[in-house]
Amino acid sequence: MLLSPPLVLQISPLWDTYTGETLHTLQHAHIVRAVAFPSNPHPTVLATGGAEKKLRIFDLSRSSTSSTASSLPANGSNTNGAPTTPSYEIGPGVHGGTIKSIVWGSDPNILVSAADDKMIRWWDLRSRTPISVFELDGLVGSCELDTNSGAAGTLSVAAGKTVYFFDGSETMRLLKSVKTPYEVASVALHAESGRFVTGGSGDTWVRVYDYEGEKEL
């Protein structure tokens, strides 16, 4: 399955990459900035977030035959004939800024969101409430899970002039943070080589660091 590029869409189609068929239409009221599937070979749910400041969970196993938005035809289908997909919101009113990233870890009940309110939140989907919150030093540039560093992986976050590394198996357990002299747009960890890579937002440089020594190579 493939989700259309989320940065410019309010109605996001979900495509079958083999047939080109539009499988689902994900209805939103504003621009979508982040999407995530659970770690499952055949996922039946999908999380989205964006400028609405709403974390939504879509049930891909169901389709609605009635539209919830005036921009769609009365039968609930988009112009390609794909039905809209029902969703529910996690933590209404909690996010204070655009949701920039969503990460689904090894536990299907736990979801991580990173937003422009400089907060990372860990959510329990069973209670639909945040179970932990971590305040960042700046706006989120990137947030991703490196699954090569263990079964649960390591959550790598770039925000302001700092990169953060969290234990993927324990909610909000910070392994380390590394300060940089520049604004960091993105970070990626390669645990096997003991290195991480950053991209700056104010220049064209990509920098490689030693994870343990925290020094630029």
TrEMBL record:
GO molecular function: RNA binding
Keywords: mRNA processing, mRNA splicing, Repeat, WD repeat
Family annotation (InterPro entries): WD40/YVTN_repeat-like_dom_sf, WD40_repeat_dom_sf, WD40_rpt
GO biological process assignments: spliceosomal snRNP assembly
SMART domains: WD40 (SM00320)
Region (Disordered): 65-90
WD repeat ranges per the UniProt record: 95-133
One GO cellular component term: SMN complex
Keyword Endoplasmic reticulum belongs to the record: no
Identification of the protein by name: Serine-threonine kinase receptor-associated protein
Protein family membership: Belongs to the WD repeat STRAP family.
Bias (Polar residues): 72-87
